[in-house]
Amino acid sequence: MAAFPLQSKGSTNLTNRRGVSVMTSIRSKEGKGRRRKVRGFQVVEDECLWMKAGVVNFRLCDNAFDCNHCGFDKAMRKAMGAGKKPETRVLAPGWVGYLQKKYRGTSAPCRHVLSGRIEAPKICAFNYECHHCAFDQMLDEADLAAAGGQPDYETAAGYKMAKGYYYHLGHGWIRFEHGGRVRLGFDDFLVKLFGPAGGIELPRLGDKLVQNKVGLAFNRSGMQAAVLAPVSGTVLAVNRNALEHPEIVHEDPYHQGWLMMIEPESPKRNLGGLYFGKESRRWMENEGQRLLSMLGEQYTGLSATGGRPLGDVIGRFPELGWDNLVQNFLRTAKVA
Predict the structure, then answer these.
(1) Number of domains in the chain
(2) Which residue positions in the chain have pLDDT lower than 50?
(3) Contact, 224 vs 335, CB < 8 A?
(4) What was the pLDDT predicted at 257?
(5) How far apart are CA 225 and CA 327, in angstroms?
(6) Which pTM value belongs to this model?
(7) Strand pairing partners for 305?
(8) Would 282 be classed as within a structural domain?
(9) Which pLDDT tens digit goes with each residue over 162-204?
(10) Which pLDDT score is estimated for 26?
(11) Helix, strand, coil shares, percent, the chain, to 5
């Protein structure tokens, strides 16, 4: 995003009025020490393919079936003696060999049946060499093009939040999909705060994003705002429909209004700066209260009444200042 020479504000410098780090004050102590797990969107089953192959008795996938970035898969391959000699090619995930031995001919189920990605019975015709399989490629292409199923919603401070999504402090969301890929968009708070965008600027296919650095932008009536990238990775696809009709992002930010599909550098590595579940709702409640405090004392108790937030805050209260809202909620500096 060379067109936006901005300085992003680091999360360690974000403090509330008492001087307490926002990230620290929001995060729950309950999650400390727990094993980090990538929760995939609408992934029906979570049994590791090493378990499906019968190599281990019990193991649940905690990496959205992204075997190429899975520490357990690498450890199993090492334990089984795979890759002792120098290799000039990329090795297939270790479970492939075991599935090849266990299933043969017409009794070999497709790996996407085993992982729960598809429900209909399907036989593997390529001995688990998925790079030769047109059906496997078709599924990947369909994932890149489609928005997927409509998520379930809950609310926090009156703002919609899609269940199963991760949220970033710069008001972007991501959801991990089958294979560890990530879909990305703006959250309901952002689209209601700044109202309908006149245009959206996204990186090109193949560009690299860096978590907590400026990665995308939008504009309205001559004003521009940069948005931090929620994750690090490579851009695989962009939602052309959202670029051509940005009003979709305002109307349906979590589904048809998605913006990009990303191949993350490492799914688990990206989780450190993201909110999920109860933690994300507490963070959104805090953001809602911060906005109400800017509007004045008469609005500070409004969220407790259950009232719906305005769909265009800056349009209704221009005195709040576009740049002020960008800096306070998107955590990015003024666009030069």
Answers:
(1) 2
(2) 1-35, 83-90, 304-305, 336
(3) yes
(4) 96
(5) 9
(6) 0.68
(7) none
(8) yes
(9) 999 999 999 999 998 877 889 999 999 999 999 999 999 999 9
(10) 41
(11) 35, 20, 45
pLDDT of residue 137: 62
Q: Are strands 233-238 and 208-209 parallel, antiparallel or unpaired?
A: antiparallel
Q: What is the pLDDT of residue 147?
A: 62
Q: Same domain for 59 and 197?
A: no
Two tokens, residue 311: 């769909």
Residues 221 and 306 both lie in one domain:
yes
User: How many of the other CB atoms lie within 10 Å of CB of 42?
Assistant: 13
Which residue's entry shows tokens 């003024």? 334
H helices of 103-231, where? 111-114, 134-145, 188-194
User: What is the domain-level CATH number for residue 335?
Assistant: 2.40.50.100
Domain final residue, candidates 127, 145, 163: 145
DSSP per-residue letters across 68-108 = GG-HHHHHHHHHTTTT-S--SSPPPPTHHHHHHHH--GGG-
Range of the domain at 234: 1-41+152-336
Q: Dig out the tokens for 73 from the structure.
A: 């898969």
Helix (H) or strand (E) holding 227: strand 223-228
Residues composing the chain: 336
282 C-beta neighbours (distance < 10 Å), count = 16
Under DSSP, the state recorded for 319 is: G
Predicted confidence at residue 274, as pLDDT, reads 95
